[in-house]
Amino acid sequence: MANTSSAQKAARQMIRRTEVNKARRSRVKTEVRAVEEAIAAGDKGKAEAALRAAEPTLVRNAQKGMMHAKTASRKISRLTQRVKALSV
User: Fold this and answer.
1) Using one digit for the tens of pLDDT, what is the confidence trace for 6-62?
2) With contact defined as beta carbons under 8 Å apart, do 72 and 60 qualify?
3) Which of 15, 19, 49, 72 is the most buried (most CB within 10 A)?
4) Residue 21 CB partners (closer than 8 Å, separation 6+)
5) CA–CA distance, 45 with 11 (Å, rounded to integer)
6) Comparing C-alpha atoms, which of 70, 67, 36, 34 is closest to residue 53?
7) Global confidence as pTM
8) Average pLDDT, whole number, for the chain?
9) CA torsion angle for 50, 74, 20, 13 (degrees, to 10)?
10) SS3 call for 75
């Protein structure tokens, strides 16, 4: 257990941040899974709509430091390629 008051405060903050980060990570996984499920089903319209919903979530998480900016960009790029390939 933390001994100083500043260490106790840091421990409290860490608990709160962990909860927020878990929620953000879960949200990203859910959004990406929705896109992948629509791609697997072959529904281009649904996949495009899910991608439009997932993209801002990925970018926002990159800005918040949940993931590296290039990781978010790579995920968006790969999902976009897969959605585009549905029409071919």
Assistant:
1) 999 999 999 999 999 999 999 999 999 999 999 999 999 999 999 999 999 999 999
2) no
3) 72
4) 66
5) 46
6) 34
7) 0.83
8) 95
9) -170
10) helix
Boundaries of every domain in the chain? 5-85
- pLDDT of amino acid 82: 96
In three-state secondary structure terms, 77 is helix
Tokens of 28: 């990203």
Per-residue pLDDT reduced to its tens digit, 52-72: 999 999 999 999 999 999 999
Compute the C-alpha angle 49/57/20, nearest 5°. 140
Superfamily of domain 5-85: Ribosomal protein S20 (1.20.58.110)
Alpha-carbon distance values, 47 to 5, 10, 33, 40, 75 (Å):
50, 42, 10, 9, 15
